[in-house]
């Protein structure tokens, strides 16, 4: 009998480890750590997804904002939590891939299960009172003097957009980091900085309120913002400029119980099909993508190759991406 009890105990531990007995999950509220201030793209995406995923999971999902170190503090808190599927994080693909090379975290982007909900392009904006009315004026000014550009922090979507702009427009700028996209946009509205290159999701309300002017969208197609107008493509002035934007969504440790991850997959897919998310995307001028699993892994790997090498070659990274096995795309 003692031998049988030992075998049963071992089987119980094994089944717990691989999530076989997690059929009742979730039995308590889930917490999403947003490692940025409220109001930014990560926060808005998390809150919208949470409302819809609650309906599928039949359990409350709370949001905790933990800003700092370009999102690294909140991300580390998520990884330090028990691996039981009750603690998630919300972020952008372009941010999570940078933490190793910036020296902020030891966590690789390959350790995440990525759930990419919304894609939003970056938009070059200036205060409503700015003397610049088109991108050519801004470029010429940046060639003769150092203008300030706000962002959500080193390695954030807005910072990376500014680095792409610096590279293709052959200009320089003064980087002014804030604790999230919303504070960066607010600072621009107030005239604390000359420009911001944050995301359509974060700037549309201020554009409609005539508190910002949009000079260009960082995509090959113009962007129409209802209540504001058409924002021209940056390729009008810089023909070879690549599409620059971010996928926002949820990032969860891959080593949670397998069947719990399967339930999260289904809840996420349910949320991405919802009318609520589609309405939100329309209002904020972004696109529902709803990508997870192996396809999301492939997208994040490609983003890592593109973004980390840009930061390294522009002197913004502490470590070479090669140290972490991130290949450079030709």
Tell me what you see in this structure.
With 330 residues, the chain is an alpha/beta fold. The protein has two domains: 19-120 and 246-324, D-Maltodextrin-Binding Protein, domain 2; 121-236, Periplasmic binding protein-like II (D-Maltodextrin-Binding Protein, domain 2, 3-Layer(aba) Sandwich). The protein has eleven helices and 13 strands. The chain has a six-stranded mixed β-sheet, with helices on both faces. A three-stranded parallel β-sheet has the order 7-6-8. The chain has a two-stranded antiparallel ribbon with strand order 5-9. Helix 2 (41-57) packs across helix 9. The model is unreliable at 6-15 and 17-21 (pLDDT under 50).
């Amino acid at each position: 009998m003692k031998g049988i009890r030992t075998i049963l105990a071992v089987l119980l531990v094994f089944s717990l480890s691989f999530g076989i007995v997690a059929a009742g999950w979730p039995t308590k509220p889930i917490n999403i750590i947003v490692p940025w201030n409220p109001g930014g793209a990560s926060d808005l995406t998390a809150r919208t997804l949470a409302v819809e995923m609650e309906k599928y999971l039949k359990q409350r999902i709370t949001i905790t904002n933990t800003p700092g170190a370009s999102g690294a503090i909140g991300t580390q808190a998520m990884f330090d939590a028990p691996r039981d599927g009750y603690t998630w994080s919300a972020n952008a693909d372009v941010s999570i891939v940078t933490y190793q090379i910036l020296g902020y975290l030891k966590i690789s982007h390959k350790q995440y299960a990525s759930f990419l909900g919304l894609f939003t392009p970056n938009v070059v904006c200036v205060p409503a009172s700015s003397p610049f009315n088109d991108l050519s004026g801004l470029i010429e000014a940046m060639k003769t003097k150092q203008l300030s550009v706000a962002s959500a922090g080193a390695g954030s979507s807005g910072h990376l957009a500014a680095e792409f702009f610096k590279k293709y427009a052959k200009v320089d700028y003064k980087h002014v980091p804030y604790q999230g996209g919303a504070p960066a946009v607010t600072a621009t509205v107030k005239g604390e900085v000359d420009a911001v290159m944050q995301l359509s999701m974060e700037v549309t309300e201020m554009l409609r309120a005539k508190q910002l002017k949009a000079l260009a969208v960082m995509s090959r197609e113009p962007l129409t913002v209802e209540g504001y107008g058409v924002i021209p493509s940056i390729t009008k002035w810089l023909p070879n400029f690549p599409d620059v934007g971010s996928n926002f969504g949820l990032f969860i440790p891959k080593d949670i119980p397998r069947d719990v991850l399967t339930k999260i997959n289904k809840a996420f897919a349910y949320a991405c099909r919802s009318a609520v998310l589609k309405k939100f995307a329309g209002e904020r001028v972004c696109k529902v993508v709803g990508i997870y699993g192996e396809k999301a892994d492939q997208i994040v790997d490609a983003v890592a190759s593109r973004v980390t090498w840009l930061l390294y070659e522009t002197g913004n990274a502490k470590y070479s991406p090669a140290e972490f096995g991130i290949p450079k795309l030709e």
